[in-house]
Amino acid sequence: QVQLVESGGGLVQAGGSLRLSCAASGGTISNYNMGWFREAPGKEREFVAGIQWSSRSDYYGDSVKGRFTISRDNARNMVYLQMTALKPDDTAIYYCAADHRDGSTWYIRTSMYLYDYWGQGTQVTVSS
Questions:
Q1: E-strand stretches of 26-67
Q2: Which residues partner with 43 through β-bridges?
Q3: How far apart are the first and last CA of the chain?
Q4: Residues 6-29: pLDDT tens digits?
Q5: CA 94 to CA 15: how far, in whole Å?
Q6: How many CB atoms lie within 10 A of CB 70?
Q7: How far apart are CA 64 and CA 96, in angstroms?
Q8: How many degrees, rounded to 5, is the angle at CA 32 between CA 99 and CA 79?
Q9: pLDDT for 72-88, tens place per residue?
Q10: Which residues are CB-neighbours of 56 under 8 A, at least 6 positions away?
Q11: Helix/strand/coil percentages in the chain, nearest 5
């Protein structure tokens, strides 16, 4: 089992930027496809961004496409989410998630039910 810890959340003004980090331990993240999800007040958990284990593919939810960028550094067991042009609707708890590789043909993983391990979340608040 891999343990995930998010950091980098905080309070930012609309239009600002923030970089979230996800530190993994107890496993090598090259064995995992990784993703970011968020839970906003009154809403269900929402897919934000995903990245294939070797960074050959990255993909985004419609609400953040063009504004957020996911990246990873497997050598450091780190995953990042660079957020720009933040909006009040981006306010949420952001979660890092890991999906263990199974050798299947690659497909994008936007469902939370595909992910095996989760961090505790980090709060992002965007003021208007």
A1: 32-39, 46-51, 58-60
A2: none
A3: 39
A4: 999 999 999 999 999 999 999 889
A5: 18
A6: 22
A7: 16
A8: 100
A9: 999 999 999 999 999 99
A10: 106
A11: 10, 50, 40
